[in-house]
């Protein structure tokens, strides 16, 4: 779906287009009128001939340049006549409705609702508006009507004055109120007006006390309200540019226009539901609500609202008052937390943020969008950047406006002269204002967060120390782990000294933990891993510390590969084999090996006689074991499809991942990532064998064929001519013609 973010005014305005056109015409004039040479001025016929040739070449060059300029002119004209977003979706609706006849527009109507929308292509295929299913309805496009007995909407609507047009477009209530307010003569008479006419439903939706106040004083209140819906000039949808402001006919108060990329146009946040209904003395745009005048900026609106007292205090402390008082090109959307929203936050957390200027500024900026977004402009969840730099997903669910998928907007569209305010009943705290513990508690690592607290690490995770936490996903833990001294020590090694970014990590880097260990970084084509655990989500950057979400509980290396094998009873036969082959020193020395270690079950799988022969032949045994050892560190997170790892034996091991299980030369790994200081051990229950040699295509097909001679082609032709199809070709008319030409 197209983004609902605001449409910036087009860079190429009408005046810019005019300038470009003028320049291009000037160049054309100079090119076509310049460089003229009088051949008669030459002394002799030879000289005249030469000059004529030069002139001909020059004219050809001028024509080529003229063609290029004409193409440029076409491009400029295309840009200048570019459609507005509304016209684009209207055209799409026309295309979708043409099967029903001429001038029929297809619209999406929200089920169990009267709301209808012209749509773009993606909305059409999704068939949803604000997460609600829609049905297709067909109506006459703006400016057309049906004729009994004919298909579609072949007739143009009769062009009448604004008063009568209100009746034609179904704004009967507005027409009635204009007559009560003695405006009929005005909108029937001469002039050129734009009338943003509230629909019948819009008047019915007004609170009873407001409607009573209007109709009880028709000569002042109702008259003023209707005049505020009028502009003393004709404004089509093309001229209703995003961010434009027009003076209304009520005490020169202004109306605020927004024209969004999804084709929705609003005036004072009321959606135009039937735009461009032309009249003899102007134009009517039917809107979905009665609009009211606004003369206050956002700061003033916040200052006079009792329910925003806490927000007002916070903004004053952060120095935001001046920014929200400024009027000009900047238009803001503020999701204003009410006093209730602030009251839901733990007192200690709120006190910490309000007392930290940096966190407070980030908190407030996270509630402000750079552009104005009225509620009616939102038809689907759309990510929008805040002043803080993070993204909020602004969406809708039926009539409710949502933030990050939650229906927390309690009041919509409080319009100011420099933006709009939506009240929310829940405070939005960005990651940049959170402690490390708060980052963990608000993510998919709540099990780890609880364990860190149980391990007595709360003070580290809530303080101002620069740290990075490696937080395993909830599914990385089996059941509910019980806190033990070993687990406490392990969790301490999940916290790194210094605040890091995963983007700055590099292969072979060592990271120091609070427990004093050094953890290694491994960078693979498909993953970034720290020891056996790989990063599973984007970094979360808090106020002082960062959090890396990882896929496994990190297990630091506690010894060499030989130490790991000796400590595991499954490898008792392997340990003996290593000693027999004289490879103990290799697996104890410093290095980086990947050992696919056969368990006792793997050895027992071999025929006894074959096993005995192998164990008696140290050279052969060494060769077999070296095939199980890869040169370099490869944890399971670095294995993807078709990874090749050179073995110490010389052949390359073929690795891939199938059904979340690593395989090496088609042998599954039964337990991965037993970390060692000089490598990693992966347990296998079968002896790894060399794969059959792959024969490339050239070897399989024989030596490459040399270029054949013409004679050989003739032989092939003769053999091909025995084919029935070739005989038919020979008898064809074109084939007979070829023979004659030969």
From TrEMBL:
- Organism this protein belongs to: Oryzias javanicus (Javanese ricefish)
Fetch the PANTHER family from UniProt: PERIOSTIN-RELATED (PTHR10900), TRANSFORMING GROWTH FACTOR-BETA-INDUCED PROTEIN IG-H3 (PTHR10900:SF82)
GO biological process annotations for this chain's record?
cell adhesion; extracellular matrix organization
Q: Which positions, given as ranges, span the membrane?
A: 12-32, 66-86
Q: Which InterPro entries match?
A: Adhesion/Biosynth-related (IPR050904), EMI_domain (IPR011489), FAS1_dom_sf (IPR036378), FAS1_domain (IPR000782)
Q: What subcellular compartments does it reside in?
A: Secreted, Extracellular space, Extracellular matrix
The keyword Transferase belongs to this UniProt entry's keyword annotation: no
Q: Does the record bear Transmembrane helix in its keywords?
A: yes
Identify the PROSITE patterns for this entry. EMI, FAS1
* Oligomer and partners: Binds to type I, II, and IV collagens.
* Domain named FAS1: residues: 162-291, 295-428, 432-554, 558-688
Quote the cellular component terms of the Gene Ontology held in the record: extracellular matrix; extracellular space
Q: What GO MF terms are annotated? A: cell adhesion molecule binding
Which function does this protein serve?
Plays a role in cell adhesion. May play a role in cell-collagen interactions.
Q: Which Pfam families match?
A: Fasciclin
Gene3D superfamilies of this UniProt entry? FAS1 domain
Q: Where is the EMI domain?
A: 101-155
Name by which UniProt lists this protein: Transforming growth factor-beta-induced protein ig-h3
What's the chief localization of this chain?
Answer: secreted
Q: Which UniProt keywords apply?
A: Cell adhesion, Disulfide bond, Extracellular matrix, Gamma-carboxyglutamic acid, Membrane, Phosphoprotein, Repeat, Secreted, Signal, Transmembrane, Transmembrane helix
């Amino acid at each position: 779906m197209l983004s609902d973010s605001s449409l910036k005014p087009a860079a190429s305005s009408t005046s810019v287009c005019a300038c470009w056109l003028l320049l291009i015409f000037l160049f054309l004039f100079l090119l076509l009128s310049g460089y003229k040479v009088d051949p008669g001025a030459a002394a002799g016929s030879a000289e005249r001939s030469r000059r004529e040739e030069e002139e001909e070449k020059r004219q050809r060059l001028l024509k080529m340049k003229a063609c290029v300029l004409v193409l440029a002119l076409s491009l400029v004209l295309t840009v200048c006549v570019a459609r507005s977003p509304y016209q684009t979706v209207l055209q799409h609706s026309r295309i979708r409705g043409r099967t029903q006849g001429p001038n029929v527009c297809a619209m999406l109507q929200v089920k169990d609702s009267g709301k209808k929308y012209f749509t773009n292509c993606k909305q059409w295929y999704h068939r949803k508006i604000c997460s609600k299913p829609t049905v297709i309805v067909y109506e006459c496009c703006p400016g057309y009507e049906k004729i009994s007995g004919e298909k579609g909407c072949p007739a143009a609507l009769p062009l009448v004055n604004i008063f009568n047009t209100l009746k034609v477009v179904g704004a009967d209530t507005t027409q009635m109120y204009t007559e009560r307010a003695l405006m009929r003569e005005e909108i029937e008479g001469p002039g050129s007006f734009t009338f943003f006419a509230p629909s019948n439903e819009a008047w019915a939706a007004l609170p009873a006390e407001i409607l009573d106040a209007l109709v009880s004083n028709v000569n002042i209140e109702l008259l003023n309200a209707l005049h505020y819906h009028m502009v003393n000039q004709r404004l089509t949808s093309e001229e209703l540019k995003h961010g434009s402001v027009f003076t209304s006919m009520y005490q020169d108060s202004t109306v605020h226009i927004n024209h969004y990329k999804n084709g929705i146009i609003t005036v004072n946040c009321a959606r135009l539901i039937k735009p461009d209904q032309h009249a003899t003395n102007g134009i009517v745009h039917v809107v979905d609500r009665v609009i009211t005048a606004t003369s206050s900026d956002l700061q003033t609106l916040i200052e006079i609202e009792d329910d925003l007292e806490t927000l007002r205090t916070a903004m004053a402390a952060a120095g935001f008052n001046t920014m929200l008082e400024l009027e000009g090109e900047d238009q803001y959307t503020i999701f204003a937390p009410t006093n209730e929203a602030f009251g839901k936050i733990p007192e200690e957390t709120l006190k910490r943020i309000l007392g930290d200027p940096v966190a407070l500024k980030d908190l407030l900026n996270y509630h402000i969008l750079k552009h104005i977004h009225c509620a009616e402009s939102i038809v689907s969840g759309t990510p929008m950047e805040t002043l803080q730099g993070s993204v909020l997903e602004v969406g809708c669910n039926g009539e409710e406006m949502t933030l990050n998928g939650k229906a927390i907007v309690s009041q919509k569209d409080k319009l100011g002269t420099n933006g709009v305010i939506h009240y929310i009943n829940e405070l939005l705290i960005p990651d940049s204002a959170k402690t490390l513990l708060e980052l963990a508690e608000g993510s998919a690592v709540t099990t780890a967060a609880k364990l860190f607290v149980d391990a007595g690490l709360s003070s580290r995770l809530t303080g101002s120390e620069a740290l990075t936490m490696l937080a395993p996903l909830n599914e990385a833990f089996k059941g509910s782990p019980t806190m033990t001294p070993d687990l406490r020590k392990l969790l301490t090694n999940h916290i790194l000294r210094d605040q890091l970014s995963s983007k700055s990590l590099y292969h072979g880097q060592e990271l120091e933990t609070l427990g004093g260990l050094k953890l290694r970084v491994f960078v693979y084509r498909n993953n970034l891993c720290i020891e056996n655990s790989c990063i599973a989500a984007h970094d979360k950057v808090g106020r002082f510390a960062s959090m890396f979400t990882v896929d496994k509980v990190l297990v630091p290396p506690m010894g060499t590969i030989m130490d790991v094998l000796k400590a595991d009873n499954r490898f008792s036969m392997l340990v003996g084999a290593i000693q027999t082959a004289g490879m103990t020193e290799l697996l104890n020395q410093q290095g980086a090996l990947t050992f696919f270690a056969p368990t006792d079950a793997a050895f027992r799988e071999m025929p006894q006689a074959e096993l005995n022969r192998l164990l008696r032949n140290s050279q052969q045994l060494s060769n077999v074991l070296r095939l199980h050892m890869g040169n370099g560190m490869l944890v399971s997170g670095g294995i993807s499809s078709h990874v090749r790892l050179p073995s110490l034996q010389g052949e390359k091991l073929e690795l891939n991942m199938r059904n979340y299980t690593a395989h090496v030369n088609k042998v599954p790994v039964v337990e991965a990532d037993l970390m060692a200081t000089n490598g990693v051990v992966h347990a296998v229950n079968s002896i790894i064998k060399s794969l059959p040699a792959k024969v490339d295509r050239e070897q399989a097909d024989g030596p490459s064929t040399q270029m054949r001679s013409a004679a050989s082609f003739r032989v092939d032709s003769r053999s091909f001519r025995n084919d029935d199809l070739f005989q038919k070709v020979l008898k064809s008319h074109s084939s007979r013609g070829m023979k004659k030409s030969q």
